[in-house]
Amino acid sequence: MPSIHWSIEKLSLPLRYTWKISRNATDEKTNLIVRCADGSYVGKGEAAPNIRYGESPEVLLTQFERFANTAPPDFASVDELQAHCHQCEVAYALRFAIESAWYHLRAGGRREQLQRTLNVEFIDHSATSYTIPIMEPGVVKSFYDNQRLKRFPYIKLKVNRELAEDLTRQVVSFSNAPVMLDANEAFTDVEDCIRFLEKIKKLPLELVEQPLPSSMREESTYLKKYCPFPLFADEAITHDPDFEWLLNSFDGINMKLMKAGGYSNGLRILREARHHRLRTMIGCMVETSLGISSALNIISMADYVDLDSFILLQKEPFGLLTEFEGRLSFNDSDRL
């Protein structure tokens, strides 16, 4: 087998509007594109660094150089690849980019071959939710109308502690679609969070996602007893979730491949969640259609699909997916 050549590049991604969640706001993201080539085909993967997990483009570039400089000509298995990533102390977003590029190379760019390797049912299209970032309650209706968000089957609403009640009431007043409330660890006092949920308990919400910091484990278990809505874990779901704790604290999980570190571990997490009868969501960071299409490859394992972020880019560089009337589809269902 020919030797693999590894390479990486930075990709600046201006956004169509300010992306604001409870802990930060940005108008541009910088992601990394990993390529591995064997002379016949090029496999590609995407890393979306997230400062919440100590990741930055500069840190990941340094880690990739260490990985590539010590990599063997090829890896005999994904376990061998992941062991090398671990030895090189590669962050999980970069592990995903490396692993998916390697998988895509081994599949020869054929989605059917990747399906067989991953042992997943192939679904070539799916509805997705769309996320409204934090903004002043008075402008959220015009944002909803201007972005034509009525076409999406679910709306995910980002909130912080200060605007949570007003934003939630505003959105449910005009959205016919179920609303998923995403706090991104905004509440640091569990009693304060319970009071907020009590105020909105009669609103038609689909679920509430990660209202407390993932470090507040006992408080999260306590919160579940009083939450009137299904609780989903997000920041608490990294590469090795504690399912014993999750079962007592949440009703479902949001698995993101960037945090899981690759297809193989992401699927392990989803299968274990289903084994424990937790509901599953597949989510994303701010990614191009390269990263989103990778997640779309495994949506047969998800109860909810939250893969909208490539839509908020000013210029999407790969064109691998199409969104029409809230549904995602591959532009070429046979090619990666």
List keywords for this structure.
336 residues; alpha/beta; Enolase-like, domain 1; TIM Barrel; 2 domains; eight-stranded parallel sheet; three-stranded antiparallel sheet; 12 helices; 14 strands
Number of domains: 2
Overall geometric form: globular
Structural class computed from helices and strand pairing: alpha/beta
Radius of gyration: 20 Å
Count the E strands.
14
How is the largest sheet built, in terms of strand order?
5-6-7-8-9-10-11-12
Percent of residues in helices? 25-40%
What low-confidence regions span 5 or more consecutive residues with pLDDT below 50? none
Cα distance, first to last residue?
Answer: 21 Å
The CATH topology of the largest domain is what? TIM Barrel
| Number of distinct helices | 12
- What would CATH call the homologous superfamily of the largest domain? Enolase-like C-terminal domain
The first-level CATH class of the largest domain is given as Alpha Beta
Question: Topology of this structure?
Answer:
Layout: E1 5-20, E2 25-37, E3 42-47, H1 57-70, H2 78-87, H3 92-106, H4 111-118, E4 125-127, E5 129-132, H5 140-146, E6 154-158, H6 164-174, E7 179-182, H7 190-199, E8 205-209, H8 217-224, E9 231-233, H9 243-249, E10 252-255, H10 257-260, H11 263-275, E11 279-282, H12 289-296, E12 304-305, E13 321-324, E14 327-330
Parallel strand pairs: 5-6, 6-7, 7-8, 8-9, 9-10, 10-11, 11-12
Antiparallel strand pairs: 1-2, 2-3, 4-14, 13-14
Helix pairs in contact: 2-3, 7-8, 8-9
